[in-house]
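quick one, two chains, predict together pls
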Amino acid sequence: MPRYNPPVRDTRFILDRVLKIDNYADLPGFANATPDTVTAVLEEGGRFVAEVLFPINHSGDQQGCTRHPDGSVTTPDGFKEAYQQFVESGWGTLSAPEQFGGQAMPHVVSTAFQEYMISANMAFAMYPGLTHGAIEALLAKGSPEQQEKYVPKMVSGEWGGTMNLTEPHCGTDLGLIKTRATPNADGSWSITGTKIFISSGEHDLTSNIIHLVLAKTPGAPESSKGISLFVVPKFMVNDDGTLGTRNAVTCGSIEHKMGIHANSTCVMNYDGATGWLVGEEMKGLAAMFIMMNAARLGVGLQGLGIGEVAYQNAVQYAHDRRQGRALTGAAEPEEKADTLFVHPDVRRMLMEAKAMTEGLRALCLWGGLQVDLSHKAASEEERQLADDLIGLLTPVIKGVGTDAGYRIATDSQQVYGGHGYIAEWGMEQYVRDARIAMIYEGTNGVQAMDLVGRKLAQNGGRAVQTLFRIVTEEVAAAKAEPELTHLAEALEKANGQLQAATMWFMANGMKDPNQVGAGAYSYMELMGTVAIGLMWLRMADAAVAALAEGDDEAEGGRAFYEAKLVTARFYADRIMPNAGALRRKIESGAETIMALPVEAFGV
Amino acid sequence: MPRYNPPVRDTRFILDRVLKIDNYADLPGFANATPDTVTAVLEEGGRFVAEVLFPINHSGDQQGCTRHPDGSVTTPDGFKEAYQQFVESGWGTLSAPEQFGGQAMPHVVSTAFQEYMISANMAFAMYPGLTHGAIEALLAKGSPEQQEKYVPKMVSGEWGGTMNLTEPHCGTDLGLIKTRATPNADGSWSITGTKIFISSGEHDLTSNIIHLVLAKTPGAPESSKGISLFVVPKFMVNDDGTLGTRNAVTCGSIEHKMGIHANSTCVMNYDGATGWLVGEEMKGLAAMFIMMNAARLGVGLQGLGIGEVAYQNAVQYAHDRRQGRALTGAAEPEEKADTLFVHPDVRRMLMEAKAMTEGLRALCLWGGLQVDLSHKAASEEERQLADDLIGLLTPVIKGVGTDAGYRIATDSQQVYGGHGYIAEWGMEQYVRDARIAMIYEGTNGVQAMDLVGRKLAQNGGRAVQTLFRIVTEEVAAAKAEPELTHLAEALEKANGQLQAATMWFMANGMKDPNQVGAGAYSYMELMGTVAIGLMWLRMADAAVAALAEGDDEAEGGRAFYEAKLVTARFYADRIMPNAGALRRKIESGAETIMALPVEAFGV
């Protein structure tokens, strides 16, 4: 059976020495995030997920959710009790506003906790995860009455939340949705239609579920411009906050999926269900994008979370399993065989996993901080900068993070050899769970198109120019430090490839947008290589500083920082060479991709 | 539900115009492979697998195998009947020797049929697949009496066969096996021990199962040099060929696996089972390697087979599903949305799948032909050449082929968006099934070590020098043809990267073998890029010739060949750029991979 040890030491390193969150102590909420508080959150939160959520991860996968003939859904054994503990200990309230019962901690801190929760039990983490998305939308677009009515009990975890976008015939192309909303006399709306792939759509963890639903109002145009957002509670909520009658929204069936078996993925039937408009009519998509952007960062974090736990177990197995001898001669002649750790190709997989998980952790926490700064930074200029950067890199974190999570899970399974393929060892679950993150909240191909088709060009390319400038400046500063020169040069080169590819898009995309579409995915990967490279440069820089200070007090001592420097070099040597190949693929253009008629594919 | 259409047109193109098997008509067996016979085999064989095996693929996955309290195992509904039809129509006898009831067809032809069988139902195909491996070992090392006793009924399919290598504590490192064989007075041996991960170890398809088992004889050294091979029938075979008493070999349990649910993966308990030595005592590993090399090519073919069927379904879905609009404006304004085919990033995935499956098909069939030539070519020189090349490229076909199969299955699933994650659509099964091929018959990391640690250096590097020479000569010849120049130049460059990496290994490996081990996987990928690139050069060359001849009679007409030329350019533009990155990774050496102490990984 797998194990999980929350990487508190690494999180602390990133928060304290890379992001230096104490620099922001005078911003709202950051005062709550003193080093002691953050340490307590990470350690106690880590203990909670490891002790309560992790033990029901594998059993939850094996048992799955069950829909009953009356449409109710029960989660696997132990989930209800664990959720109760989750609510009671307040883990869902970390970064919610104080006025609605939250702890008002910075987003960057709750991001750190979410990673741990995903590692411990991704299917479980999705229940509060969806609730948070719904809270975000209500806070952004809901009326004060709606906020007061729904948000406090969603923050506490007493009620759950969902996002209802997809329908059988449309996922990405939401302009095609058929769900209809017709106005009632009392100001409410009557919602009718079928939604599919609704995560956490029905379950037994909460006493009510607040659905946020996209629908079209009478006369709305047949495009994404005609979409409105509604709040539809499973149980009507009386004015005194008690639950009223059951609304006409039911779970028609649950899906049998490749993974995340313990999260109920529902077909939701709205049969004249009562709902209320959230925000303005026909402005629903913008509201939904608020949820979606937050959700996409959360999905990127799923790549990290699954990658981390899979990697930890591969390390343990490589340490325990003896097979073969070191190429340089027996490392432990007194044993019948050496451990897997002596084999360079096993280490290659472990080092790739280490470099990518630690790099992604830095990138995800950096992203969490940008979310904070985009709302809370002191100057408009700083808020703008943070908003630009997180807007640009959200699709990269989602796309590159989840691709990496799947690859790390696959490689970690590979370390186990045949045992990795057997269910009881638990590794194949990580691969199956990681797989969905590349698909939902917009497939990774959709992320790539969001990046090149929307984010790149916004405000005249301001965001990407900012990224280039930051990388260039930090590379220039780092080159002077001998320990950083190698990585700085590799990053400079990759940044050059990214700039060249950007120029190529500008030169060719106006004439033929397919030239950009054909290179979009490689471009996303290239920007991810640069962004994670930047994180490694910052981590290496922080490690050099810590070593110079003689910081050997914390867990791991000097060896922790020395390992960072080795891993940074590994990233430069073994990951960054991809940048040149990606640029060449992009610059080969659309011709061979678009040339063939459909018949040539055999349809 | 998925569909499957055997790619007969493409197979014929490769056999007829790329490999030109009619050039070999005077070699033993090839006279049986007239164009008409081969066409009949491909079309009828393709129809058989599509109509009989494919319909029980998804149901077989859902139902899986069942072990009963008495140790017997039943396969999923329909498997027994399908197997009966398989035996009756003689599909298992294609390339077996005539003296044992086979049709003595060339291996290259049965390879083509095996691809189809895997695409239709990989779990099913493993039953006769393992039998063939056992036949190979008996034909190579068994006594004439053993061959006469077992082989005819294994060829006919009346009996099955298995390979028993792995034990709970050892897979790759077979020197550690504990299964013991002690001699009986009558010349037989008594076998005791536990074997795990035994594919097709127990089932209800055949009346007898012939196990080939590795065990150690008394006094054998504690290394792979002390291993002997035994034949252990499930039921003893009387002198008249009838079945006698049940042998003391039983299935202790079956594994619950990520995929290939319809193939029984057994723990086999040998409790003083009666067996007979195959070949010489303590020479068992060499005998097993005969099975294993054939099996590795068969596993590479699994990568191709699953990749092909997954790709076909992704194409169909991209054709059927309407979502969004072409970047260049609505392609079908009268419809509410365009098909997925208009989106460059969807096409990117489909083109990658097309380029890799067609390239792998050429490589696998080329490999099948080398197996034929290594036995049957007229001169010792030609046999040697074929043996060198297939020895070198067997780990590449296995490693690169199965990595590609998994990637193609994953990308094809991705084309389906959310539906790809749902079991009933059938795409997630392909990912789960494809995954095992990267692990068994030696993990792909073991393949990489076989390539760089054994195959490269054999006979003073003769095989790899031969490969370099062939690529160089064909590139030089192709450059003169305008349609081929682009690919030829890309291949020349990649071949240069491969040569440089080989030189780097030679210069650095003697001092420190970890320098080679650290680059082994990238080297395998690089050689695969070159080998498949060579196949694309040959296919493009054949397409140019066919177009010049005005060949527009066969299915697809000129468009078939024109698509080959586009796909060849795609391969040059979008796959070959990886070669430079792979070389750079190799030449970065072992330092960052081997530097960290185990503690730095958190154990």
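Chain B is about 55% helix and 10% strand.
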